[in-house]
Structure formats: C-alpha cells, structure tokens
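Posting this for the archive.
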Amino acid sequence: MDIKSLFKNKKGIAGTEVVIQLMVAVFVIGLLAMLISITGASLMDSTTNVDAISVINDTILSVADVPDNFSLWLVVGGLVVVIGLIAFVIVTLRGTGMMGA
C-alpha cells in the first residue's frame, strides 16, 4: 500500500488514532497501578513478616508515583499529533500545487 492511497482512504482522521491509542495506554497503566496498589494493601494487612511488609510497602510507594506522569504523556502525545497534522497539511498542500516545491 502506498502513501497516496493511504491518505485518500482516511480523510479527516489524521492523528485521531494516535490520540485514542494514547488514551487507552494511559487508562490501562492507571488500571494496573490501581490493581497493584489494592493488592499490595491487602497483602500488607495479611502478612506478619517484617521483610515482606517492607518489600510490599516499597512496591506500593513506587507504583503510586506512576499516575503523576500521566499529564506528561498526554502533552507529549498531543505534540506528536500536532506535528503529524502539520506534516499531513504540508504534504496535502504540496500535492495540490498550492505550495512551491
């Protein structure tokens, strides 16, 4: 499949797939972080071994920091979409002959 046929078949959705994939990835990462935190809290309540409690506590604290980076990933993903849209517009304008080569 060549690039021209790809652009002709997918009109009006440039960048949408990237945004959707980014949002799904952020949701899945948040879901996994929540599950690990809940499981760690349950294990901590049921364990009496001091070493095991220390390991579980370290894991919970490190996983709890994961959602702090979501805004960074959303901004980076938005920039990728904007750059993709600009490239798409430039290629389209050059293809129509409105821009000089």
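The chain has one domain: 17-96. Helices lie at 3-9, 16-46, 50-64, 70-96.
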